[in-house]
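Hi R.,

Here's the chain you asked about this morning:
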Amino acid sequence: MRPAIKILVIEDETLLLEQITASIGKVIDDFDRDDVEISLLEASSVAAALALVRDDGDIQAVVFSWDSIVFEFELAAHLTSDSGAADAQRDDDKTPIENNAKVIAAIKSIRPELPVYVLGDAVKGLDIVNQARGIESFFYRNDIISDPESILGYIINDFDDRNETPFWTAYKDYVVEANDSWHTPGHSGGASFRNSPYISDFYRFFGRNVFVSDLSVSVDSLGSLSDGTHAIGKAQAAVANTFEVRHSYFVTNGSSTSNKIILQTLLREGDKVIADRNCHKSVHYGIIQARAMPIYLDSVFNAQYGIFSPPKMTQIKSLIEQNTDAKLIVLTGCTYDGLLTDLKQVVDVAHQHDIKVFIDEAWFAYSLFHPALRGYSAIAAGADYITHSAHKVVSAFSQASFIHVNDPEFDKDFFKEVFAIHTSTSPKYQLIASLDVCRQQLEMEGYKILNELLSNVAELKAQMAKFTRLRILSAQDFAVMFDHFETDNIGHDPLKILIDVSALEYSNQEIHRFLMDEVGLEIEKFTHNTILVLLTLGGMRSKIVRLYNALKRLDDGAVNLSKRKNKSALPTEIPPIHLSDLPSKAFFSKREAIPWQSSVGRIAAGLVTPYPPGIPLIVPGQTIEYAHIEYLQALASQKLTVQGIYDGDVYVVCDA
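And here is the predicted structure, written out as tokens:
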């Protein structure tokens, strides 16, 4: 059964409003179908209508009566500025069409995916369509009063189109058919597990559906992931529509692979690419695989809390101006800790020099679906290529990822060849299905869920403001940490809750043990002075209450934990990257392992990446300096993890 379709009717003339709603209501009552449930909301002023659109995420359609709206716009008092509704103030110098167009723009600024159906004078219909963007369809109002079935049919069909899951529906139907399997995988619908005295517990734990739905790519009707055909192709087209891009692709082995696919599609040997040093290591490896020449942006690091910010806009613009022959700029749109780059500035200056923009937005896949976040969305900013880890913060299985393409010069054929290099010929269908339903949820209720999460975060912050030792770091704190925070218009994702624990007497290991062992809370990330809590689309309110209870116990000292033994911070600066050779040349050269303490003056052949903060300290092709050794010595004293050191050795290029 489809979810209820809630329709908002905007009409300020009471008699007409009653006629319209009564007519539609009669059709609803006359519908003899148990799979259609429709409810109506009524608004007799623009302000009331916009407030409903903002507050009620269950609204799935708006019916807007064009000719009779009274412009009594007193919106600022109850509509947030980020909704864009303030722009809908009446302009007495404008025509009614222009003013009504502003109302529709205000609705769309809150929820771009919400269809708006206009009822108006048929004579003005063409003018209305020409001047008011975002209209789903136009209807003559008197026709609707006499024949409301016509608009209801449109609303139901459009709802079904938005709610469609092309792959998941076909996949589920095929599995239910219970066809006899004479192809891979070898467990044959779970039979080899189910009938075994040794591994049948594996079958019982996961249940029958997991095994019968583990299919072979021999099922032609479901389509090919590498070619994007049939049900898979339709599902990818639906994702592109929801995310407002030219093309979208499913990747079943993580955004690490998505990043490498894009880099190898766009870059050739020796091509310049301006890259954020703080990018995920997959970006660094992708540049190596493409044999490109990176121009690295400096890392901006705060040692007190062990977090890094986006690179400075002055350096981004300066490197673009100095390297106008660069093919690409690669940035992380949202850092692990939720700091956001004003990407529109980057896109504008890069595109002036025909430089493509690729944004790794792994931690911010929901950015388009709420006005409080949309201003920092890579897609909204006009980036050419975007990757989303659909499993990190929205509803998909681990390893499920989206690639989005907005580049008008996109080489689709070469992309498919690179895609084939990296993608398994036996992709997991459950992962593909999870990407399909992930899109469905974002389209149909993404705004509603995010609105509730943001409200819950605001309440949590208000309650935690009463604490004496624990506190949630805010934009004001980030502005103190990073001198370019305000000048660069850096934002922060409030769903990434970074909590300062420096005032507690306990070691971070003890805090982690308390939260996990005694309270049952698994925290995303720790540094020596912070804990990071992610609120995702699965962040139910009851979980927030349990988190608050645990944090309150810590703040009150109502716990029995060991005292902090080491309050030392990380090194204050990360040495800049100075390349002596193309990273790919060093990486693929003959290499040898030597003790890291003795590596000064040698050219690195591999990445050396401390965690935290997860920023490469050394990249292939870089001459190792004494400053790197000092940094590693400081990390060693804190027993932090360093990837790229093997039994005390690092790999360097063999001397000739």
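One quick note: The chain has five domains: 5-162, 182-212, 213-443, 448-556, 583-653.

Cheers,
M.
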